[in-house]
Fold Succinylglutamate desuccinylase.
Amino acid sequence: MSEFVIGGQSILPGESKKIALPVARLYTDAEVDLPVYIVRGKRPGPTVFISAAVHGDELNGIEIIRRLVNLKSFKVSRGTVIAVPMVNVYGVVNQSRYMPDRRDLNRSFPGSSKGSLAARVANTFLQQVVAHCDYGIDLHTGAIHRSNLPQIRADLNDEETRLLANVFAAPVILHSEVLDGSLREAAVEMKTKVLLYEAGEALRFDELSIRIGLKGIINILRHLGMIAKGKRSKSVRKPFVADHSGWVRASVSGIVSHKFDLGDSVEKGDVLAHIGSPYGEVLGSVVAANSGVIIGKQNIPLVQEGEAMYHIAYFQEDEDKVAEHIESVTEDFVGEQPLREVLL
């Protein structure tokens, strides 16, 4: 195996190392570093990056990586894992989705070494981390005041990416084209296969989302032959795949009374919520335009007309079967002992 260099530091086969990768300085002259943890196996194999907090207020991924690298039996025997728990360090410090220049880092790739602050961070991450990798897992949550059902988003037209999405075994897989300026777009252009894991809400730890994400990463690393298979466990439930999805928006402004929750199946014409005045009068209703399953939902009970409220995925299978599957997966994880004790 050849020498592996990140940020001017080399990591030999069988070594693990924590690196502070410089990205920029603040106007206080304080250095801002990207925390990077590299674990190399003794034998050749694929290289996988695991990234979190590209949006600085999306915290579940940070906890997923913290738990992963602290598993006592987490031993990489083949290949290399590069874990980056905070890509947007600025956003984490400020509890903000955005960079200090108000740019969205996940719309700033591939970036430039001479561009805006967001462009420079994007370029550093792409050249120092992604360029080494065959595969990547990018960890996200819903935006502020919105929750996402644990789900994998990926380009399912790519056969290997589709296989990996199934191996991850989140309750739902959503076919998703790459977005302009996203990390996933830039990585794919570098021939890196990427899964995007969406689960939970910004600025919150959600235990179910963390457990499913941690188990999914372990599933991928086992599938790639990078870590030991571990003890035989019960059979994995096969995820349901949605080819497309859409948002249902508020018909009027007001105070919301939700009738459905994440993971629920809905039929065309179902009233998802009532919107009322401060005096309790019903001003309007939010109605499902098609049958599907709710995979994203606004949490704050106040809406403006036209605001996105429910993200509904559409499946070829019966929606009730999908909802039952989601409930079963949730029960599996809620009933388990801490994953750090059972994964490996």
Observations:
- The mean pLDDT is 93.
- Residues 88 and 122 are 9 Å apart (CA to CA).
- The chain is about 25% helix and 35% strand.
- The chain has two domains: 4-230, 246-333.
